[in-house]
Amino acid sequence: MHRIVSCLMLGALAVLANTGSAAEVLDLGAALARARESNPDLRQAAAVAAMAQASASEASSAYMPRVDVGVGYQVTNEPGTAFGYILNQGAFGPGIDFNDPGTTDDLRLSARIGWRAFDGSRGAQVDAAQSGAAAALVHHQAAGRDLDLAVAEAWLATLARREAVSAAEISVEAVAAHHARLTAGGDEGAELKIDVLEAAVQLEQARTALIIARGSERRARVGLARLLLLDPADLVLPDAVPELAMVEQGLSQSELDRIRAVRLRMDSANAAMRAARGEYLPSLDLVAGGAYDYGFETDSDGTSYAVGLSLSWSAWDGGGRSARYERASADLTRARAQLTATQAQVDEQYRLAQIQLTEAVERLATAKRGLELALSSVEVATESYQAGAAVLARVLDAEAAAAEARQQVVAARVGRQVAVARLRHALGLDIVAPQ
Fold this sequence. Notes:
Number of strands: 4
Helix content: 55-70%
Distance between the termini: 55 Å
CATH class of the largest domain: Mainly Alpha
Number of domains: 2
Radius of gyration: 40 Å
CATH superfamily of the largest domain: Outer membrane efflux proteins (OEP)
Mean pLDDT: 87
CATH architecture of the largest domain: Up-down Bundle
Low-confidence stretches: 1-22
Strand content: 5-15%
CATH topology of the largest domain: Outer membrane efflux proteins (OEP)
Strand order of the largest sheet: 1-2-3-4
């Protein structure tokens, strides 16, 4: 009885283990989500955006006052310092020898607050840092969209290779069936031998095509797995090629992430130029502080405060301000050139995506008609051969044409989805439309 119960428990555990280890089907949405979570390049872009945001916060802190507190204790017999301690502690009296006040100690508690009331470059420096942070964030978003397109293309390519393997297997099965029928008849006539040889040659060609298709599928799986940081053996794709939503209307060119990122870099460079000019202006600082002093030697204490302001101006800094201005000006020129190039690139990608989509739709329709005709040709050639009105070569040629037509339908169907994905990417839309 115990043995039966143990066997049942082991069987149940095995079922649970197999169920838990079953890999989930990775649809396109799941593939995009995993890539965004695990891709190291995207994580690096996110880190750069976080660093830029921290820099912007650091620059904004210049508007806030600075508060310092301190505590210290010192013992000395140096006359000047000791006399100062005595005065701060309120312990001065007629019996003090100025030249030798003796050993004196001081415990000081102090607080100081300082605030820069005016700085000619501070506001521009904050603007530059904030524009840089916004540009880094938008760049991260653009990198995510580029990654989405790369994953979508790799995912669709893997499905296409798998469909190509299925088409090649159908071709092998069809030619193998012809070859089997010929070799099973037992007739040794010369014509039959020729037919058998032709079928054998066609079968080996079909098998070679199948080997190539399977190799292409494995390579596509490796490429997709690299983007997702997965083992190729863990990739389980859906059975059918999905239909991506056609594009009705996308973002304007100025709203695209790549264009926005460059414009923000231009804003940052402009602000850096203003900051460099602002360094020629003076700065105004306000300061206030207080202290408490206690002497153990004198057993006296005292308090003090100080309030003031200072106006400073850097008359000459060795050309540093001028160099910073020239650097910001060159950066602005570079950003303007980059904007022109990016606008041209975006326009080219959009136009090419439109052309590719139109071509893919027409190609799919033609491929479907070609497959229908090829299958009809196989049927007619087979009937004619069985009736003795056609040679086997015609049947094999029809089978080869049908195999090619299947491959063209697969390529056209996936090509249409790739074209839709590229057009959605060019218009700044999500590859998979939100539900």
